[in-house]
């Protein structure tokens, strides 16, 4: 049976992640409180951030910036802001 969590991002019970995908305390918090659906939403935003801001994941400062955006997106209701990005209307 699939494991479920009360997703803090989506504010509903939903299938949880199969294993901890991010290290440390933040990763544990994500595993226990974020659904697969919300994590997929974050992965999409993360890809946009990395590409648009030309982040280098070998740079500790860039990784810290990305983690701050991730925590804000998943737990604080903040959307990822990318300067000049306009979502497609449809």
**Which regions contain 5 or more consecutive residues with pLDDT less than 50?**
none
- Describe the global form: globular
Q: Using the coordinates shown, work out and report the CATH topology.
A: YggX-like
Please report the distance between the alpha carbons of the first and last residues: 37 Å
CATH level-two architecture: Orthogonal Bundle
CATH class: Mainly Alpha
Number of domains: 1
What is the tally of beta strands? 2
What is the alpha-carbon Rg in Å? Answer: 14 Å
SS class: mainly alpha
Pfam family, one: Iron_traffic
Protein name: Probable Fe(2+)-trafficking protein
GO biological process, one term: cellular response to oxidative stress
Family: Belongs to the Fe(2+)-trafficking protein family.
What does this structure look like?
With 90 residues, the protein is mainly alpha-helical. The chain has a single domain (2-74), classed as YggX-like. Helices cover 48% and strands 9% of the residues. The protein has three helices and two strands, in the order E-E-H-H-H. The chain has a two-stranded antiparallel ribbon with strand order 1-2. The model has no long low-confidence stretch (mean pLDDT 91). Pfam families: Iron_traffic.
How does the SSE layout of this entry go?
Blueprint: E1 4-7, E2 12-15, H1 24-33, H2 36-52, H3 60-75
Antiparallel strand pairs: 1-2
Helix pairs in contact: 2-3
Could you provide a short overview of the structure?
With 90 residues, the protein is mainly α. The protein contains 3 helices and 2 strands, in the order ββααα. Keywords: Iron.
């Amino acid at each position: 049976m699939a494991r479920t969590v009360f997703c803090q991002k989506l504010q509903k019970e939903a299938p949880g992640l199969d294993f901890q995908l991010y290290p440390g305390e933040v990763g544990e918090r994500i595993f226990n409180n974020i659904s697969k659906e919300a994590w997929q939403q974050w992965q999409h935003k993360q890809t946009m951030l990395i590409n648009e801001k030309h982040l280098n994941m070998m740079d500790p400062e860039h990784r810290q910036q990305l983690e701050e955006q991730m925590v804000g997106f998943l737990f604080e209701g903040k959307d990822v802001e990318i300067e000049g990005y306009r979502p497609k209307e449809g």
